Amino acid sequence: MSIVDPNGSGSIALQAFIDFMSRETTDTDTADQVIASFKILAADKSYITAEYCIARMVPYKGPDAVPGALDYMSFSTALYRESNL
C-alpha cells in the first residue's frame, strides 16, 4: 500500500492503482506466453526464421544507433499485438 499510497491516506486514485498493477504485471511473462506470441508470428509453425524477424524490424534510429541496428521495441509491440508488423 505504501507504494500507491505514499502519504498514508488509506485510499488511492483509480488511475494510481491501474498504473501500479500495469507495472506489476508487465514483467511477468512466462516462457509459454513468449512461445505463444512467437506462434502467432510463425502462423502456428514450430519455427521462425531470422529473415522473417529481420524483414519486419525497422532500422533503429536512436542516438546510440550503430550500423545495422534494428528496432526491437516496435517488433516487440507487434509481437504482443499492440501494433502491426
UniProtKB/TrEMBL annotation:
Keyword Hydrolase on this protein? no
Source domain of life is Eukaryota
EF-hand Ca insensitive domain residues: 27-80
Any one GO MF term held by the record is: actin binding
The protein's matches in SMART domains, at most eight in alphabetical order, are given as: efhand_Ca_insen
Against SUPFAM superfamilies, the record matches this protein to: EF-hand
InterPro entries listed in its UniProt record: EF-hand-dom_pair, EF-hand_Ca_insen
Question: What Pfam families does the database record attribute to this sequence?
Answer: EFhand_Ca_insen (PF08726)
Give the record's keywords alphabetically. Answer: Actin-binding, Repeat
Signal sequence bounds:
none
Q: What is this protein called?
A: EF-hand Ca insensitive domain-containing protein
Instruction: List the top taxonomic levels of the source.
Output: Eukaryota, Metazoa, Chordata, Craniata, Vertebrata
